[in-house]
Please model this.
Amino acid sequence: MNLPASPEELSSAVRNRYSKVGETPDDASGFRVGRAFAEALGYPADVLSGLPASVCESFTGVAAAALLAEVRPGQTVVDLGSGGGLDLILLAHAAGPTGGVIGIDFAPGMVERSRANVAELALSWVRIDEVPAEATGLPDAYADWVVVNGLLNLTPDKAAVLHEIARILKPTGELLLAETTLRAPLSDTAIQSVDDWFR
Model:
């Protein structure tokens, strides 16, 4: 498949568009965003109702990933592509105050929203780093869990992200990867613009 732009241009477009979703989710044209979408993917309404509305407003995942990860109290969890913080906050509740939860996102608007959500809920064992998924800066063999909810499909260098995941996971660590996948190859003309990259 030919890319519609350079990897750097695609990454910049993803950062800018998802930052906008974090800042003004109601203007997120081209994205399925928000609480109704989260519920459609399997997040229970009663769980979402127990969180501030701002936690769900910018949700853009592809599955109820945080509910599938069997995180135990005291574990270290990395939410790669943590967005507005829905999965991050649910993972923080699972890991508890004896654990550690790191959100990784490179879109400033999403990082700002998730930091505000975490602060409102006083989750002192959570931090959010504004860095790319392929260069987290975390130590080797750091995490018991890495959770990814709809990141690779928008990433030009998927191999680099997978290498970083393997690097930061403990030898006994676990990966939960929820992704949009294709059932057949795309035609050579399917992606001709940056907008097509987001379809």
In short: The mean pLDDT is 91. Residues 7 and 157 are 7 Å apart (CA to CA).
